[in-house]
Amino acid sequence: MSVEAAVLKLQSPLRDLVTGAVQDSSAEFGKSEKDKAEVAAWIEKVALGEASKPGGIKDLDTQLTPRTYLVSNYFTVADVALYGALHPILSQLQPPQYYAHPVVTRFFDHIQHRPSVRAAAAPLSPAFSVVEFDLANAPAQERKADPPKEKKAKKPEAAAGSNEPAKKEKAKAVPAPAVKEETKAAEQDKEKPPKKEKKEKKEATEGGKKKEKATGGGKPAAEEAAGEPVPSMIDLRVGHIVDIKKHPDADGLYVEQIDFGEEEGPRTVVSGLVHYIPIEEMRDKYLVGVCNLKPANMRGVKSFAMVLCATSKDGKEAGIELIQPPPGSKPGERVYFEGSEFESATPLSQLNPKKKIFETVQPGFTTLDTREAAWVNPVTKSIHKIRTKDGVCVAPTLVGASLS
User: Fold this and answer.
1) Under 8 Å CB-to-CB from 333, ≥6 apart: which residues?
2) 373 three-state secondary structure
3) Which phi-psi region, left, alpha or beta, contains residue 319 (left: φ > 0; alpha: ψ -120 to 50)?
4) Which residues is 388 bridged to in the sheet?
5) For the chain, does the N or the C end have fewer beta carbons within 10 angstroms?
């Protein structure tokens, strides 16, 4: 079935909403035959009322978890159709109810604010009026901070388990006493080695803990963590802003939902860009995010990453811009530094604030005359461009800017 035929199956006013959005060039039927078939299949599901069936939203939560859009990685009329079908349902939910479906709520809120959707919905008001969600007060999801805590919880058990065989070995090694003096000498002889062994085991266990904590599971990061801070310790990834609002308690802060290609869904990120980049220029943008900073509370909202920006060499008032990944980049793609010593290195699982790794490396971040983002080694002056597998990340206009 073609997309056009599937759209005709929709009931009015939903059909009018979809056809109205099609008039805008940003709403697409699909870029390939495979995508077109998938778009048609989704619209047909909507026409059959599957989204409004009991348990339908729960199923959608699961299907949408790894996605920003229904088909591929771009906006299509299938997204408009699903948004329209969900509107009468989500518009009636109270916060505890839509908090229970964070992925569907995130998808719905993202689609409803797209310019083409708002333009198509205007003549159909109030059928598809904007639904306000209190996302700022949604229950905090601290999934990003959990993995290090789990490792810490397991290590004491592992350490305790490693001492058990030593205790059994010690019990086996006790010889049957022949005379009192022999027994005393035997006990003295056997007491010393276990103490040394216990010390060695303790040191080995502690060494293992330190290594595991520093590496986050990667050998290259372990080697780097043992020396001076280097840029490849920083976990940079392509991100996509799927929702953005102003912080309810801070005039200068945005609260963004940024898709980093993770199964858990978008991360909440707080950034102080309100006075420098209009919200319209932030919405739906692809960017580069720093993903292994320790989560931080920003006026009551926990932030799980940082948006990498270029600040004019003349200061913030002269301009701040988002660092942009190459065209066609997808959420979660690895961003790395050119150079044999950095390209294959594994970032740390989480930067230790006490070691000030980011703060030490950051002064070398800049944009070149080509506007390409790079790290310049302060000692050797060697240039290491910041890139994905498809190309170098850039600032839209700023040259000689500082990155942070």
Assistant:
1) 237, 238, 261, 325, 388, 389
2) strand
3) left
4) 391
5) N
Contact between residue 289 and residue 261 where contact means Cβ atoms under 8 Å apart? no
**CATH code, 3-133:** 1.20.1050.10
Residue type for 274, please?
A: V
- Highest mean pLDDT among 14-28, 44-58, 70-84, 204-218 belongs to 70-84
Does CATH number 2.40.50.140 belong to domain 231-403? Answer: yes
What is the spatial distance between Cα 244 and Cα 78, in angstroms, rounded to a whole number? 22
Please check the confidence at residue 17 and state whether its pLDDT lies above 50: yes
Using a cut of 0.85, tell me whether the model's pTM lies above it.
no
Q: How confident is the prediction for the chain on average, in pLDDT?
A: 80
Average pLDDT over residues 107-132: 88
Nearest to 104 by CA among 133, 75, 72, 147: 133
Inter-axis angle of helices 33-47 and 77-90, nearest 10: 20
Cα distance between residue 163 and residue 236, in whole Å? 40
Q: How far apart are CA 341 and CA 223, in angstroms?
A: 11
Q: Which residue has the tokens 């022949």?
A: 178
Percentage of the chain beyond pLDDT 70 is 76
Q: Are 107 and 76 in contact (CB under 8 A)?
A: no
